[in-house]
Design brief:
This protein has 189 residues and is α/β, with parallel strands linked by helices. The protein is built from eight helices and seven strands. The strands form two sheets. Strands 2-3-1-4 form a four-stranded parallel beta sheet, sandwiched between helices.
Length: 189
Amino acid sequence: MGRRIILLGPPGAGKGTQAKQLAEAAGFLHLSTGDLLRSAVARGTPLGQVAEPIMKSGGLVPDDLVIGLLKEALEGSSDQVQAGVVFDGFPRTTAQAEALDRMLADRGEAIDCVVLINTADDVIVERVSARRSCSNAQCGAVYNLVSKPPKVEGKCDLCGNPVVLRSDDQPETVRARQQKYWQSTAPLI
């Protein structure tokens, strides 16, 4: 049975970057609830329609919706799940942590490691304000205009689509997300 690793930290701290690198290096499944939710919004699924206004306001999507989406992802990627899973930014609440423990226990699994990536809030706002994402939800490439810009300004290196500032990366939304993170996730830390 593969490893089950959780990376926690405030939005924009670098969890996604580190989780992707770890998953690629180890051959693990990278599960980002943010990516799963953004994909659901882009596809216009019922969950995406419920989640979109919550995400735009910087709020947290209800636990039951996030947990259901995560469960689907775990069940749909069985080969890679056997190698290992990196949970990127999940769980965010005590209820999510308890649900994840139950979900894994039902599968005869448990969390092996939790890593907290912490970064100052003002550094996060600056970093996230420079973040750009490929507008093609299927591609999902992420850039930073300061540290990792696309080769051609405004165009994704992988698919050529425009790179854009995500609606949830606006400075005021980032601050709202940070506040929600510290309110809901602090008990886990």
